[in-house]
């Protein structure tokens, strides 16, 4: 299918002039984003930015994509229980089955530089469709699997590739459509993974029980292909309007201390998050709860993700994205140390802990808005490409570390709980230093300079940059506190 390139039109009064060859903010190079090739996602919304507007259609589309990628990936716990119980997979072991689940996440992050390059070369919609096809193929292939290596290639590698292309192509789109409600809109989109995980964990179990494993996979493949494919038809980016830079490895980002503080926050936060996600069911059974109680705890955890993320986003827009990311990370560490360790052995206490699951996964609703604060909208795609690549390590080895720390008998998970809480506290330390850098930036720059260097700079109706009004709220929030001059 030939890609359409819109013909240039004269700028109308009150509309934003198209931005082409926008200079790279770091290196002075010209942007090589979506401008050097035809892109399918050109739309009238690129010519005139309006807060929200068509952006809410984009939010709903990304929500559905997250539900049918990350949400489907959460249902692997149901498949794992079936594999261990049925013995239908030859040459298998519990460690091999666990590796299938971890491999899908690792591959999805590892492929992010390739997906980022595809966005710049072919456009957001085409990149998303590549992921849609790969995900459907993975489930179809898994439906015919009889050996463990079949699952490793299909449900592990192929699904991870599809997940990576879908996730990378959508994660940076929502912030382009919002300024004042950026965090809220982004968190609404990410809550799809929580609701999707809850829905498909229950639905997959019912399909396996009534239709068998093979047809459960095939039905999931059809659902994912139809829903994600439809979303790719309506999803629109504003890459040209914001001058997005889609370079897989932008070398100048490595020279920025604040970027590495941003990466450190995500690295340690993901270590804690993956352990909680994959360990909560086994923990419940290890302290004497039934399998159904463990499943209920996991379901409530997914529900808390779905409900908690929009709340986190709404609060972020009011009190500051970095502020709320730090507070949420700190709460995740405190609850791991106190609620999980001291109250988790009692079922009501465990339920209270999993209700704080929205804070355990605070990285997901906050990563794109905080990234925009740190590097700006133009460099956000390139920054996230490196970000996901670094996060391959914690995604791969977090549960391995947890299993190695687990002991036997009473308090088998004590070491795991302490390690998880420590990872969140370490993550909080990084985001606190990042917050100090942001305070320094706001205090030392004049009003005009803030407007030009603000990470939330968004073109106004007259084509001029306008800083986000939230900064006055941030300064009021910090009033009376000691301003850190040096990070």
Automatic annotation (TrEMBL):
Residues spanning the membrane: 56-84, 96-120, 132-153, 159-177, 184-203, 215-236, 257-280, 324-344, 350-372, 384-405, 411-434
UniProt keyword list: Membrane, Transmembrane, Transmembrane helix
Keyword Membrane: yes
Membrane topology reported for the UniProt record: Multi-pass membrane protein
Cell compartments where the protein resides: Membrane
CDD domains according to UniProt: MFS_MCT_SLC16 (cd17352)
Any Pfam family hit: MFS_1
Entry GO terms, CC: membrane
Keyword Zinc tagged: no
Coiled-coil features, chain-numbered ranges: none
Region described as Disordered: 1-47, 448-472
GO molecular function: transmembrane transporter activity
Domain of life: Eukaryota
Domain Major facilitator superfamily (MFS) profile: 257-487
Comp. bias regions, Acidic residues: 37-47
Family: Belongs to the major facilitator superfamily. Monocarboxylate porter (TC 2.A.1.13) family.
Name this polypeptide is given: Major facilitator superfamily domain-containing protein
Organism: Chaetomium fimeti
Record lineage: Eukaryota, Fungi, Dikarya, Ascomycota, Pezizomycotina
């Amino acid at each position: 299918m030939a890609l359409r390139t819109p013909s240039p039109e004269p700028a109308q009064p009150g509309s934003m002039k198209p931005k082409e060859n926008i200079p790279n903010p770091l290196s002075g190079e010209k942007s090589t984003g979506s401008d050097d090739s035809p892109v399918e996602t050109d739309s009238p919304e690129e010519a005139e930015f309006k807060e929200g507007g068509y952006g809410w259609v984009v939010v709903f589309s990304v929500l559905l994509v997250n539900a049918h990628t990350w949400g489907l990936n959460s249902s692997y716990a149901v498949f794992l229980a079936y594999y261990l119980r049925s013995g239908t997979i030859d040459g298998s072991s519990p460690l091999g089955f666990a590796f299938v689940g971890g491999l899908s996440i690792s591959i999805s992050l590892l492929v992010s530089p390739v997906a980022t390059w595809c966005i710049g070369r072919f456009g957001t919609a085409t990149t998303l469709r590549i992921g849609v096809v790969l995900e459907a193929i993975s489930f179809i292939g898994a439906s015919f699997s009889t050996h463990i290596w079949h699952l490793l290639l299909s449900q592990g590698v192929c699904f991870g590739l599809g997940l990576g292309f879908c996730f990378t192509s959508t994660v940076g789109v929502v912030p382009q459509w919002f300024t004042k409600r950026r965090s809220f809109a982004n968190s609404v989109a990410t809550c799809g993974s929580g609701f999707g995980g809850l829905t498909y964990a229950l639905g997959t179990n019912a399909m396996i029980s009534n239709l068998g494993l093979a047809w459960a996979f095939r039905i999931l493949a059809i659902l994912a292909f139809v829903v994600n494919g439809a979303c790719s038809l309506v999803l629109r980016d504003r890459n040209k309007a914001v001058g997005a830079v889609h370079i897989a490895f932008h070398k100048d980002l490595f020279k920025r201390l604040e970027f590495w503080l941003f990466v450190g926050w995500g690295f340690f936060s993901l270590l804690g998050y993956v352990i909680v996600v994959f360990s909560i069911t086994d923990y419940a059974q290890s302290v004497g709860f039934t399998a159904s109680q463990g499943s209920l705890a996991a379901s409530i955890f997914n529900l808390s993700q779905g409900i908690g993320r929009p709340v986190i986003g709404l609060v972020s827009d009011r009190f500051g994205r970095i502020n709320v990311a730090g507070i949420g990370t700190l709460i995740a560490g405190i609850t791991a140390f106190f609620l999980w360790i001291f109250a988790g052995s009692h079922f009501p206490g465990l339920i209270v802990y999993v209700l704080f699951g929205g804070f355990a996964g605070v990285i997901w609703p906050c990563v794109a808005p905080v990234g925009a604060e740190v590097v700006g909208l133009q460099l956000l795609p390139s920054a996230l490409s490196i970000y996901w690549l670094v996060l391959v390590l914690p995604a791969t080895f977090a549960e391995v570390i947890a299993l190695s720390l687990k002991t036997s008998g009473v308090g088998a998970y004590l070491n795991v709980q302490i390690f998880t809480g420590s990872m969140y506290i370490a993550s909080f330390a990084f985001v606190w230093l990042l917050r100090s850098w942001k305070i320094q930036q706001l205090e030392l720059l004049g009003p005009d300079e803030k407007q030009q260097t603000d990470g939330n700079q968004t073109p106004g109706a007259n084509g001029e940059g306008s800083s986000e009004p939230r900064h006055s709220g941030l300064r009021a929030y910090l009033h009376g506190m000691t301003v850190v001059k040096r990070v």
